[in-house]
Design goal:
Elements (H helix, E strand, L loop, with lengths): L1 H35 L10 E2 L10 E6 L4 E8 L1 E2 L13 E4 L9 E7 L21 E6 L4 E12 L6 H4 L6 E13 L4 E12 L3
Parallel strand pairs: 3-5, 6-9
Antiparallel strand pairs: 1-4, 2-3, 2-7, 5-6, 7-8, 8-10, 9-10
Length: 203
């Protein structure tokens, strides 16, 4: 009887070990995929939106007084190419829902269009933001979290942009992404990505 109990215990330990191992491999793969395919082109393939359980802390609206933005926030995941998804139209923005909620520890990411061919887009004037400007995120309860611009940086679409998505400093950040530069008709994408880095305002 004791031998059987011991065997079951060993079996349980082995099963747990295998589960943890493959979970680690899966998470590491997703992390590498995210960093490698950090930016998405304007012309998207089919998007795979991993919708989390909706709760009151989820972001609902973004407000940027400096450039007169006040719009809804959509949720996006990765598209079929493993790239970060984009909002459905030019007037809204999209929160990358595989990252932290804005206000949580880590780097939350929101992207939006600019240079829309048929009219104005929400992030057309994102480049006008300066260090110290404020960005407000309203959640579904109506609670406001304020972020302050810390820096603005341009990236090549194929650049390693891991710092946009991962920053382990124990603080909460919100990073905004849009397209900039010239339009490449062949690649159907802009030449650069503009990223506005912000830090959560602690009051």
């Amino acid at each position: 009887m004791k031998i059987k109990i011991l065997s079951k215990l060993k079996l349980s330990i082995i099963i747990i070990f295998i589960f943890v191992f493959f979970a680690g491999v899966f998470l590491n793969f997703n992390s590498k995929t995210l960093i490698k395919n950090s930016f998405a082109s304007v012309k998207e393939q089919k998007q795979i939106n991993y919708l989390p359980v909706i709760n009151a802390e989820m972001p609902a609206r973004i407000k940027i007084p400096k450039i007169k933005i006040n719009t809804n926030i959509e949720f996006v995941g990765l598209n079929s190419k493993g790239e970060v998804g984009v909002p459905n139209g030019p007037s809204s923005v999209a929160w990358f829902n595989l990252g932290p909620i804005p206000g949580e520890i880590g780097s939350a990411v929101i992207d939006g269009h600019s240079g829309w061919k048929n009219g104005p887009a929400v992030f057309d004037n994102l480049y006008k933001l300066k260090k110290g400007d404020k960005i407000l995120i309203e959640d579904k309860k109506g609670m406001i979290t304020t972020f302050v611009v810390s820096k603005i940086k341009k990236y090549d679409p194929k650049a390693n942009a891991s710092e946009v998505f991962v920053l382990n400093d124990g603080k909460a950040h919100l990073n905004l992404i849009t397209c900039t530069g010239f339009w490449n008709k062949v690649l159907k994408s802009h030449s650069s990505r503009l990223v506005v880095f912000t830090d959560k305002l602690i009051e």
